[in-house]
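Practice record 12: protein with BV8.
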Amino acid sequence: MESKPELIKPELIELLRNTESVLFLTGAGVSAESGIPTFRDADGIWNKMKPEELANFDAFMKNPDLVWEWYQYRRQIIRESGPNKAHYAIAEFQKYFPDVSVVTQNIDNLHRRAGSETVFELHGNIERSYCIKCHAYYNSPNFTFYDKAPKCLCGGLIRPDVVWFGESLPESEFNQAEKAAQRCGVIFIAGTASVVYPAAQIPFIARRFGACLVEINIGETEISYLADYCLYGRAGDIIPAVLEEVKRVRTAL
Ligand code: BV8
Ligand code: ZN
């Protein structure tokens, strides 16, 4: 549903003037303008491939090369792309607030490449791989040029360091994300369908601790009903627009 970006309400700007802690919960929609396909949109990944066939451990054990090749295809897209205006604007919030956390479901590392310093990756990072047998990590970028699932020196299969369905999230990342949700004054829920748990719990935690919920999306989602403000439009347009308002009411640190 394309709609013109809603005006950023004065009450929200006033809140941003006074809060010290901001959290961004981001999903695939924030990377869409970098040319990285989302999952559940009309042209999303899941419409071409079934998640159960690819993003889970059994699928990997059944056909490691097919799953590895799928991640190779996504690594290639990510390598050829880069952060977009949304990522850079999120990183610039750090200049105006003492506490900015990015809790991302994305595995593309674009928030860090844009300069965000506090990033919690709930679903892992496609640039990291590890051996399923001895858990040795293989993170050198050129390592991921293998087009078939490589083997570790110990003989074990090497897999992408991402969280598949049915796998638990990295404990420390999720715990730190929960703490950031408890202390933030404003949480921006940007570019996510908010259907994947437990990541989709983060806004509820923020709400419980009194945060203002701001959704940034091109359409309605599962969380829209809970949001205090819904800013409809592309993340690459809306987040820089919110940053401009922040610059008007706050001085750089
Ligand atoms: C776990 C792999 C248990 C990495 C991914 C029934 C009910 C509730 C939960 C469950 C259930 N059945 C099973 C579960 C649990 C399951 C789950 O939540 N399933 C859902 C689908 C029902 N969760 C799990 O399995 C998790 N693990 O629960 O483990 C456990 C517990 C203890 C011990 C052991 C085990 C693991 C979840 C992680 C799965 N991994 N991917 C990879 O290959 O990427 S999920 C996948 O979805 C991605 O990681 C992605 O990040 C995530 C969320 O998707 P979104 O980011 O929201 O992207 P999507 O395309 O959906 O939406 C894009 C949005 O952007 C849209 O709203 C669109 O409008 C918007 N948009 C588009 N363009 C723009 C835009 N907005 C702004 N600007 C734009 N330009
Ligand atoms: Zn090994």
